[in-house]
Design a protein that fits this description.
The chain is α/β, with parallel strands linked by helices. The protein contains eight helices and 14 strands. The strands form two sheets. The protein has a seven-stranded mixed beta sheet. Strands 7-8-9-10-11-12-13 form a seven-stranded mixed beta sheet, covered by helices on one side. β5, α4 and β6 form a beta-alpha-beta unit. The longest helix has 10 residues. It is globular. The termini are close together.
Length: about 260
């Protein structure tokens, strides 16, 4: 059975907080925030694929450090999967020899330590029995969410997003969706900031969850909230709990495991 482990799910750092990263089995990362830094060397060496939702630092910060750590030890390159727009940002602003070396050219272009694989919305990537599909979301930079389908269950991870009808249109097509991980970065008192930064607050989240086709959902669907700002997490979750929407909703936790 496919297993998804939460390495980090916070909207910030400090103490036990780690920024966003999910480990699919032993070889696939979904985003690569600071949670990656808690993995052992043996665990780092097993990572062969990284699916990136978008280019913001809290989701990609540990890609350069990961590649730098394992290069020369691994015999195969690590592949980054992302949209054309996100790959362009990574090439121009991270792996550019000014912020970090271009590992797509080291030791040479024919046998690099890092490869790029462009993906498109709706495109299914098969890795063994695991199927990963990019979903539309709306953020301040080009971004996607991911539908992860295992042998038995499906999970959707939105990444960072604001109001996005297209996302829920695609989610409603997924049969027997069991887990939905959706961001809510701000409290209702920060509605204007949430709108400006294209994130969600509880009132906006409820608008989005109302778009779920409940006649089509698995009866055991569970919703988990990610990207909570440290220090505001309890307030955000209280505001979510104050609205009765008929769904199981709880905060996502570091080290939480999902069986797919």
């Amino acid at each position: 059975m496919t297993q998804l482990k939460v390495l980090g799910c916070s909207g910030g750092i400090g103490g036990d907080c780690r920024t966003t990263s999910l480990l699919l089995d032993q070889d696939v990362l979904i985003d690569a925030g600071s949670g990656v830094g808690d993995l052992s060397m043996d665990e780092l060496l097993k990572i062969s694929h990284i699916f990136v939702t978008h280019s913001h630092l809290d989701h990609i910060a540990f890609i350069p450090l990961l590649v730098d750590t394992v290069m020369g030890i691994r015999t195969e390159p690590i592949t980054i999967y992302a949209t054309k727009e996100t790959l362009t940002i990574l090439k121009e602003h991270i792996f550019n020899w000014k912020i970090w070396p271009d590992f797509n050219a080291i030791p040479n272009r024919d046998m690099p330590f890092l490869r790029y694989q462009e993906i498109m919305l709706g495109q299914k990537t098969m890795l063994g029995q695991r199927e990963i599909t990019a979903l539309p979301v709306h953020h301040v930079v080009p971004a996607v969410g991911y539908h992860i389908k295992g042998a038995f269950h499906s999970l959707v991870y939105t990444g960072d997003t604001t109001i996005c009808d297209a996302l829920w249109h695609e989610i409603n097509k997924i049969s027997q969706l069991k887990y939905l991980i959706v961001e809510t970065a701000f409290s209702n008192s920060e509605l204007e900031l949430a709108i400006l930064s294209k994130h969600l607050c509880p009132s906006m989240l409820m608008q989005e969850l109302a778009k779920l086709d409940k006649t089509h959902l698995a009866s055991e669907l569970k919703v988990y909230i990610t990207h909570l700002k440290p220090g505001e997490d309890e307030c955000i979750m209280r505001e979510i709990a104050d609205v009765e929407i008929g769904l199981s909703i709880s905060a996502l936790n570091r080290y939480q495991i999902f069986e797919l």
